[in-house]
Amino acid sequence: SKNSDWWRGSVTYQIYPRSFQDDSGDGIGDLRGITRRLDHVAGLGVDAIWLSPISTSPMADMGYDVSDYRDIDPVFGTLDDFDAMVARAHELGLKVIIDQVLSHSSNRHSAFLESRSSRDNPKADWYVWADPQPDGSPPNNWQSIFGGVAWEWEPRRKQYYFHNFLKEQPDLNFHNREVQDWTLENVRFWLERGVDGFRLDTVNFYFHDRHLRNDAANFQPGALQAWNPYYMQYHLFSKNQPENLDFLKRLRALMDEYEDRTLVGEVGEQHHPIEIMGQYTTGGRLHMAYSFEMLSHKWDAAHFRRQVEEFFRLAPGGWPCWAFSNHDVVRHLTRWEKHGASREALAKLGAALLFSLQGSVCMYQGEELGQTETELTYDELTDPQGLVFWPEDKGRDGCRTPMVWESNAPNGGFSTATPWLPVKSPQQAVAVDAQGEGSVLDFYRRMLAFRRSEPSLRTGGTTWINTPEPVLAFTRGGEVTCVFNLSPEPAEAEMPSTGEVLFAEKSDLDGRMARLGPNGVLFLRLS
Ligand code: TEU
User: Fold this and answer.
1) Which residues line ligand 1 (CB under 6 A)?
2) What sign has the CA pseudo-torsion 480, 483, 484, 488?
3) ipTM
């Protein structure tokens, strides 16, 4: 194989297709729009793009509810548009990773419509069906991530079906071998079309406990942020079952029939997440596990150190994929606002830190502009999560507003029509065309170029340097020492030796003393 390890230490740019670029003029982003804007992505110097779901969907959960696994939703375009997008990406040297939402389908999928129609149709066992309890109540106490019981009554069968997420997202029954085989063939469809990999949505939710055992009584459902300490502290029987370890091997075997492909699994776990990521990324299963650990509000040098240190200690041989922002969480500049000397300083520090962590990384569209969360009113919301949990949890629309390309064009140059979510002025102010020399965008480009020039930043191991808060320092591959000031105040830290400055932002080396400006960054070659 040519370059089967390309994913190790790679940087992936996440595109949220609804909000990247509208080409058709309907206010919703599409594949032709993405193709048109790929130069911007390639110009950053990333290795790959990941597209959130583009398959046919009624959009109850914005594409995470698929009604046809082998087609493109008309709102995004056609399979021809997809092929053209992949061809352009490859021309630009970008790998293409697409989301695969295999754990559940849409409730409008033909398989579900058939499955729900009776107890003895050919697809009767494709979803998770169970009889009511004698008093008519749901089979057990499982809770949905989006609030309320995870069971929905189906009068045609006089049974309940199980849904970890919305009732519009019934869970497929992976215990059924036919479902597994069908799923693998759906995945093969995209491998044949030339995609380089998959981001596996909710990869730890594929299997539920066959015996439908109750979750611990002290389990407290509620708002679903991963950083909510009461959320899912306990082992849940509705997900992460041992059978998954075998299925992931089947999936990997399929991938290995093709050259240079990759699997990154989204592992949303509050109970022993690192051990599970380790299991999933060893033994011939996934290549990478997407971690939630840095998508939280937690912020201090010890926290970042602990995550990386624990991963490689508890998951030896495994490989993480880190991210600070995505389409599910409040953008990191807003989450970590109070630790920034300015929006720009925090954005640059974030980029330098993210791109220095041992592992692969995903960045999210707009992050390279220093984008902040968009403030929306209740009436502007579309996300079911926000509509249910408002105002404690405003949902995920605020990080999904359109990409801004032009600071003076209507809707930031995203669309000529009214966009599906509004473009507001604080976001438009940092449009691509407004970012010159010294800007956040310029920093992302320079930082990624620097990273490419130092192979140890891609795959080198990590040696920690003990520096007191707020400084985080480590050496990658024995070559490049990375020093970060996580505080909005200046800070200093002593290095083990003197050396040469390779790359710096508002910082310098004075003998053995690293002198860091507010949120300063220093990359050194120690002598
Ligand atoms: O998210 C999975 C997941 O665990 C989410 O519940 C996450 O914790 C939450 O959104 C944080 O606010 C994936 C997708 O990324 C998400 O967009 C989908 O809604 C979900 O799966 C269901 O497919």
Assistant:
1) 61, 64, 101, 145, 165, 201-202, 224-226, 268, 327-329
2) negative
3) 0.94
